[in-house]
Amino acid sequence: MVALSDQLVTFAILAYLIAMISHAVEFALGNARKVPAAAPARELVGAGVGGVGGVIDEPVVPAAPQRPDRSAARAVLAGRIAAWLIVLGAALHLGAVVTRGLAADRMPWGNMYEFVLTGTWIGVAAWLVVLWKQPGLRRLGLFLTLVMVLLLAFAELKLYVQVEPLMPALQSWWFIIHVSTIIFASGIFLLGVVPAAAYLMRNGWEQGRRSFPYTLARRLPAAAGLERLTFTLHAFSFPVFTFAVIAGAIWAEAAWGRAWGWDPKETWAFISWVVYAGYLHARATPSVKRNVATWIAIVGFLTVMMNLFGVNFFFTGLHSYAGVE
Amino acid sequence: MTTVDDRPSTPPAQAPRRVNPVLALLRNSWRQLTSMRTALILLFLLAVAAIPGSVLPQRGVNPERVDQWFVDHPDLAPRLDRIGAFEVFGSVWFSAIYLLLFTSLIGCILPRARDHVRALRMKPPAAPKRFARLPQHAVLEAPAAADPEAIAAVLRRRRWRVVVRGNEVSAEKGYLKETGNLLFHVSLVAVLLGVALGSWYGWHGNRILVAGADNAFCNTRQQYAEASLGPRVDSSDLPPFCLTLEKFEADYLPSGLASRYWATVTVDEPGGAERTAGFSVNSPLRLGSANVYLLSNGYAPVLRYTDKYGRSQTSRTPFLRTGDSNATEEGVAIFPDANVDPATGVRAADQQIAFDGFYLPTVPAEGPPVRSAWPEERDPAVNLLAYRGNLGLDAGIPGSVYELDKRQLDDGKLKEIGTKLLRPGEKWTLDDGSTLEFVGTEPYITISVRHAPGQTLLLVASGTLLLGLMGSLFARRRRVWFRVPPPEGGSPTGGSSLVEAGGLPRTEHPGFADEFAQLVAAVSGDAPDARRAREGDE
C-alpha cells in the first residue's frame, strides 16, 4: 500500500508537471482575447465564490467578427488540456493520500511529509472548485502547478519518511480536528497566494509597467477579478484557521496542561493569525491600497511557510512530529 | 471588516471656539490611536515582536535552554536579557504593543457599537428618488404582489427588515455583519481578560512522582521541583490533596514507539474518601481544584549501600531520561551520611559515597552498555561509577539532586574508585568492603499540576469570536426599495401598474445581482419565468 501511495505521488507530480508545460504553451501562444468565445453561461451565474464571471479571457459579449486566430485557438486547447491534467493529477494525488492513510491505518497527517501531501491536495482541489465556478481564471493554473510541483518534489526528496503509527501524544480526537483544519486552512492559504501574486503582477501591468515580473502578467486575467478571488479565498480560510488554532489550544490544554504556551509553532501560528487579520482589515479599509493589502496576504503566506518549514527544521519545540532530522 | 459602512451623518459643524491645547492634543492622539492605520501598524508590530520569542529560547517555555544559551553566548546573553529577549511575551515592549492595540480596538468598537444599536433601532431609510441610479433596479409589469403590504409580506418571509411608507417599501438585511464584527472584537477583549485571569490567579508546579506509598506527594509549594504562582496566589492558597502513584503502564510497538501510557494513582482529597483514578497523555486527571497532567515517565533505580560499619541506606533518586528513544537514563545516588562511625557518631568528611552513571532498561546484546536497546525493562542494569570523598554538599551552594558537584572532582576532594555494571539483585563490593546492591527499580512519572482559572471564559470567548468572525466575513448588508404607483390616478407612471424596484449592496458583494433578481421574481409572482427571461436577456 505504501509503495502504491509513493507511485501515485510520482504520477501526480508528473501530471502536474505536464499540466504546467501545457499551461506554459497556452501562455506562449497568442492572446486569447481574440478568440470568439464559447462564452459558457455558467460564468454569469456562478458568482457564489467571487463572481469574476465573464470579464476575463473569454468575453461574454460575442466578439466582433474577427478572423479566428489559429494560435489562440491552440492556446485555448492547451489550456483545457492543462486543466484536465490537473483533474487527473488531483485524482492520483487523492489516491496517494488515501493509500497512505490506509497503509498507516490512521489519518494521513502524522508527519511533515503527510502534512504537505494532504495540504497540497486541498490546494489543488480548491483550485478545481474555483476553476469550475470561474473558468476564465484558467491561466492561473500555470502558477498553481508550479507551486505544486515544487512543493511535492521537495516533500518527496527531503521530507519522505516511512509509515509509522501515531505516538501517544497524538492519539486523540483532537488530532483529527486540529490537524485536518490546519491542513485545510493551509491548503487554501497556499492557493490564495497564487491569485495574490498574479494580481500584484497584473496590477503593475495594467498600470503600465513593462519591466520583468510585470510582463509575465500580460496574458493573465484582469486584476480586479484576481484581487477579489484572493480576498474570497482568504476570507474563507481565515475562520477555518482560527478554528484550527482554537482546537489546538483545547487539545494543548488536555495534552500539555496549558492552552497556550508560546511554543515556536504556536508563536508562528499567532504571527500568521495577526498578519492575516491585518490583511482582512487592510482589505476592508478604503484608504489602504489594494496592492498593499495583497502584499500583507503574501507576507501571511510566508509566515505559514516559515511555520511549516522553518519551525520544523530550525527550532525545537513540542510540535516535533515532523519526522525530519 | 471595519470602516466600510458609512456612518450616520456627522454631527453639525461646531461653532468655532477656543480649545484647550492640552485637550486638543489628547483628542487628536486618541483619534490617531483609534484610527485603522494605527491599528494596522500595531498589528504588524505585534507580529514582528513575536518573532524573537520563537528564535530565542524563552524562560516560560524552556528555562534549561535559556541557561544553555547563556553558556554559549556569554557576552550577548546578558545584554539581550536586559531588554527581555528571553521573556518576550511578558516584556514591557510586547505588552505595550498589545495594550495599545487593545486600547485602539476598544476606542474603535465603542462608537461603532453605539452606531450599530442606533442602526438596529432605526427603520430602513426612505427610498431614493431615482431608482435608475442604484446599482440594481428593475421595473415590474403587473406583479402578483402589487400593493405595498403584499410586497412587504414577500420581503418579510425572506427575513428582510421592512417598513412601508405610503406607496414605498424600504427593506434592509444583513445587520449580522456589523453584529458579528462587534462580537468578534468584544470576544478578543474577553480572550485577553481570560488570559489575564489565568496569569493572575493561576498556578502550576512540576515534579517527579515515584511509585509507592513512601513517595506520595501532597500539594504544597515545597513539594514541587519547579513551581510558579500567579501574582494573586499565595503558597497557602494551594488546595490540599495528596497523590500516590500506584502503577504505571506503558505499551510499546515493535518499532519501539510508545503506543499507550497509563498512570494509576490514589487521590486523597479533603472531604472525601481515598479513591483510585487513572490518567494519561491527552486525558489529564481533573480534580476539583487543579488538573494533573502526565508529562513523562521513567525508572528510579533502588540502590542500597551498606557501608563498612554495616549500616545500610537506600537511594530512590529518579534517573532522568537522556533523550534517546529507548529510555536510557542518567542520574546519581548520593550517600552523604555513609561511613559515620557508629561508636563515635563522627562523620568523616572525606568518607562520603556517591555513584553516578546510566540506567538502561534493556542492555544491548552487544556493544558497550551505555545506551539502552529497548524502552521497556527486558534486561535492566545500572552502569555506575563510584566516588568517595567530600561531596561538597555542606558548602551551602545550591546544587542539583540529579548530578554530582563536578568541582569537588576537579579539586581532588572526590575520587573515582571504580566502575561496574549491575543487574537487579547483584552486589558490588568496593575496596573498603562496603557494598552496593541494585535492588530493582520503581517507575516514576513526571507530572504537572495546574490550576488555570479563566479557561472557561477563554473557551466561551473563542466560540463567540469565531461566530462573530463568520458573521462579519460572510454576512452582507444590503437594501432594497419598491415603489408602487399611488392607488388613485395622477401617478408619475401614468396610472399603470408598473412597480419600480431598486437595490443597493452596502458591502461589496458580486452575488447581489442574483439575489435582487430572485427577489424581483418573487414579487412578480412567477419566479421561474422571470428568471429565465432575465437570463435570456444576457
From TrEMBL, chain A:
It is found in: Membrane. The chain crosses the membrane at residues 12-32, 81-103, 115-133, 140-161, 173-200, 229-252, 267-285, 292-315. GO terms for cellular component: plasma membrane. GO terms for biological process: cytochrome complex assembly. Its main location: membrane. NCBIfam families: cytochr_II_ccsB. This is Cytochrome c-type biogenesis protein CcsB.
UniProtKB/TrEMBL annotation, chain B:
Keywords: Cytochrome c-type biogenesis, Membrane, Transmembrane, Transmembrane helix. The lineage of its organism: Bacteria, Bacillati, Actinomycetota, Actinomycetes, Micromonosporales. It comes from Micromonospora marina. The chain crosses the membrane at residues 39-56, 92-113, 182-203, 456-475. Residues 36-517 form the ResB-like domain. PANTHER family: CYTOCHROME C BIOGENESIS PROTEIN CCS1, CHLOROPLASTIC. It comes from the Bacteria. It is found in: Membrane. It is a multi-pass membrane protein. GO terms for cellular component: membrane. This is Cytochrome c biogenesis protein. InterPro entries: Cyt_c_bgen_Ccs1/CcsB/ResB (IPR023494), ResB-like_domain (IPR007816). GO terms for biological process: cytochrome complex assembly. Residues 484-507 are annotated as: Disordered.
